[in-house]
UniProtKB/TrEMBL annotation:
Claim: Metal-binding is one of the keywords in the record: yes
InterPro entries tied to this protein: Creatin/AminoP/Spt16_N, Creatinase/aminopeptidase-like, Creatinase_N, Pept_M24, Pept_M24B, Peptidase_M24_C, X-Pro_aminopeptidase_P
Name this polypeptide is given: Xaa-Pro aminopeptidase 1 isoform X1
Source organism (scientific name): Lingula anatina (Brachiopod)
Signal peptide: 1-20
Any one GO MF annotation of this record: metal ion binding
CDD domains the UniProt entry points to: APP
Length: 721
């Protein structure tokens, strides 16, 4: 059985390498990929699309007696008000409401949660489309259960990647007529998404029209809408960043010269924060501030919301600018600080038909930015900041590993206390109180700046909701009979953390242990992978899924995301993913040395439990006897150091290599985190960890060498073919 599973792993990895075309991770970008996938599924007819209805959802069926979830949002009045604006808005017949803000952020400020307001769905990924008499929401597999609960029966739920689910343009094409118009805000839609939708609509003689007046903004009462963000901004000194902003600008200008460009327009909020060594608080859990930047050959401009209030004397000195943001009389590299509202007009002023050099714009920028100057003057290519930011320098790497040790110690101390209370019954804990207490433990750690995302504290069936967020209406108590999935992280001056562990404080069922063990096997498989430099995450993702696939299980999310250094918990451009959750290649990159990623396979049994195990790993050079093709070979080094749950592991499923990896990992946990706990006098936490890091003996079975296994698999494949 183990040989067959290993062979299966070889086959799926080979398949992933050969057929590695990525597919977008949200509907707007997915427009250009959905058609190529239909040869693998039954193509639904336009009549079937037209007949799609909210009544297709179980709770919305006629006569359904299913209780309405407590977190469902009534959107009837909001939809009526939105539709009432259609006639005055060029007579549109439908309107797009994406998740993103003007900077195409994954997580947006509460002020910019337009899609949440109109639909009631609070997940971080999704696109809403409203017609004169229908409303539909597209989202990926992470959010199917959450969307089903939160969307009321005004909405059709479009489950991306599922058989028979159309793209938004296919759905609109089945409903609208030639000559009709579809509206959207070009400030909120990425370039590629806009162009793909526009071209698909043209095929049906339907127009996509843009207006900077957002219709959701028009119907969202000021009394209900959160204020525009205006948080404090702090300076991140080189003790943590490892490189001055002036050095970063110099490095950028070299990249620009290599591409024959005269200006780089920076739109992503994590990029402006990284570039200027500044951090803010405009978006919950993300240390960003609303801003743009333009880097030119001789000038640097920084567009900051509430410039007057936020350009403090200290920040002015940091940016080598005047107290009003003026560079007059300054020598060397100076940052001109301007009002946020001037950015797009200044972008238009970069129009220079006499220059042979272009303006560099990221494909992730908004269509409004892209269309502000002629396309002939634009280099549309991934921002050079993405790779510079993702490949951490020595100072960032050292700080990141130290912050992971502190964060791991905080989590271990919390879990030791929690387990003791739940097992003894001395104190009742629920999802919300547990998440709140864990936050207290993190905030006591050196350099902590808060959480990196809203803690996923999920008991039993709530754990099956992949990105569940505890709320009073869904809050469950921790018990000794149900699984507990805890996905949490912190922001620190020297790093950003993200760790998931799944626990059971009683006697787990065999199915729970089977699921936990296979998820663990997948995590170990990925952690042990060795690959040649230039390999993409999509080419190794299947290593984590193989133990689940061989059992007929899978999960509807990517296996790994990049992570920032006191920046975003989800950082590009690298990603480890497959299929419909894998983004398009224009904004993705290979996995390079000194990038950090999550390693987080999972399994989710609807209405029962969820298992996810997430460990942050760093890409490092692998110790290989050869380097075929004169290439560097890479592997992963774990930096999260929290032990796994021994009573949830079926050790007979692990092979000797997996067992050795687990033993080595647990020894490192004890060596690095154990010292911290002992030094701090955290005896109970130390004992909790000590009980989980006992070395496990291997089976003593003889193992096939890699070459023997490959030869065996080739024989099997040849016989099948």
């Amino acid at each position: 059985m183990k040989i067959l599973e290993a062979c299966f792993l070889v086959i799926v990895i080979t398949a992933a390498t050969v057929n590695s075309s990525p597919i977008a991770d949200h509907d707007l970008s997915n427009e250009k990929n959905v058609h190529r996938n239909h040869h693998r599924t039954r193509r639904a007819t336009e009549n079937e699309y037209r007949r799609m209805s909210p009544s297709d959802r179980p709770k919305c069926k006629s006569g359904s007696t299913m209780p309405r979830p407590p977190n469902e949002v009534n959107t009837t009045s909001r939809l009526q008000k939105l539709r009432a604006l259609f006639p005055a808005y060029d007579g549109i017949k439908a309107y797009y409401i994406p998740t993103e803000d003007a900077h195409q952020s994954e997580y947006v400020a509460a002020h910019d949660e337009r899609r949440v307001y109109i639909s009631g769905f609070s997940g971080s990924a999704g696109t809403a489309v409203v017609t004169e008499d229908k409303a539909a929401l597209w989202t990926d597999g992470r959010y199917f259960l959450q969307a089903e609960a939160e969307l009321d029966c005004n909405w059709i739920l479009m489950k991306q990647g599922e058989t028979g689910v159309p793209s938004s343009t296919e759905w609109l094409g089945s409903l609208l007529s030639a000559g009709d118009k579809v509206g959207a805000n070009p400030t909120l839609m990425p370039i590629d998404s806009w162009q793909v939708i526009e071209n698909r609509m043209k095929d049906k003689s339907i127009s996509l029209i843009g207006n900077s007046t957002d219709l959701v903004d028009e119907i969202w009462p000021d009394s209900e809408r959160p204020a525009f963000p205006n948080g404090d901004i702090i300076i991140l000194n080189t003790t943590f960043s490892g490189k001055s902003w002036k050095d970063k600008v110099t490095e950028l200008r070299k990249k620009m010269a290599d591409k024959n460009t005269r200006a780089l327009f920076v739109t992503a909020l994590d990029e402006t924060a990284w570039l200027f060594n500044l951090r803010g608080s405009d978006i919950a859990y993300n240390p960003f501030f609303i801003s743009y930047a333009i880097v030119e050959e001789n000038n640097v401009r920084f567009y900051l919301s509430n410039k007057t209030g936020r350009l403090t004397p200290k920040i002015a000195v940091h940016l080598s600018t005047g107290t009003t943001g003026d560079c007059s009389g300054k020598t060397g590299i100076c940052v001109q600080v301007k009002p946020y509202e001037d950015a797009l007009s200044d972008m238009k002023n970069l129009n220079d038909t006499s220059s042979t050099k272009k303006v560099w714009i990221s494909p992730a920028s908004s269509y409004a930015v892209y269309s502000s100057i002629p396309a002939s003057q634009v280099l549309k290519e991934r921002s050079p900041i993405q790779l510079l930011k993702a490949v951490k320098n020595q100072v960032e790497r050292d700080g990141y590993e130290r912050c992971q040790i502190r964060d791991s110690a905080a989590l271990i101390e919390f879990l030791a206390m929690l387990e003791k209370d739940v097992k003894s019954g001395s104190k009742q804990w629920n999802e919300i109180s547990a998440a709140s207490k864990l936050e207290e433990y993190r905030r006591m750690q050196q350099y902590n700046m808060g959480l990196s995302f809203n803690t996923i504290s999920a008991v039993g069936s709530n754990g099956a909701v992949i990105h569940y967020s505890p709320a009073p209406s869904t809050n469950k108590n921790l018990t000794t009979t149900e699984m507990y999935l805890l996905d949490s992280g912190g922001q620190y001056l020297d790093g950003t953390t993200d760790v998931t562990r799944t626990l059971h404080f009683g006697t787990p069922t065999e199915e729970m242990k089977q699921a936990y063990t296979r998820v663990l096997m997948g995590a170990i498989n990925l952690a042990m992978m060795i690959w040649p430099e230039g390999t993409y995450g999509r080419e190794i993702d299947s290593a984590a899924r193989a133990p689940l696939w061989s059992y007929g299980w899978n999960y509807r999310h990517g296996t790994g995301h990049g992570i920032g250094a006191f920046l975003s918990v989800h950082e590009g451009p690298g990603r480890i993913c497959l299929g419909s959750v894998c983004p398009v290649p224009s904004t993705r990159s290979a996995l390079y040395e000194h990038m950090f990623f999550s390693d987080e396979p999972g399994y989710y049994e609807p209405d029962q439990f969820g298992v996810r195990l997430e460990t942050i790993v760093m890409v490092v050079k692998a110790n290989t006897p050869n380097n075929f093709g004169n290439k560097t070979y890479l592997t992963f080094k774990p930096v999260t150091l929290v032990p796994f749950e021994t009573h949830l592991i079926k050790y007979d499923l692990l092979d000797d290599k997996q067992t050795k990896w687990l033993n080595d990992y647990h020894a490192e946990c004890m060596e690095k985190v154990g010292k911290v706990l002992q030094a701090a006098g955290k005896t109970e936490a130390y004992k909790w960890m000590e009980a989980r890091v006992q070395q496990i003996s291997t089976s003593g079975q003889a193992f096939l060498t890699a070459n023997m296994l490959l030869a065996f698999c080739l024989v099997v494949i040849s016989r099948v073919l």
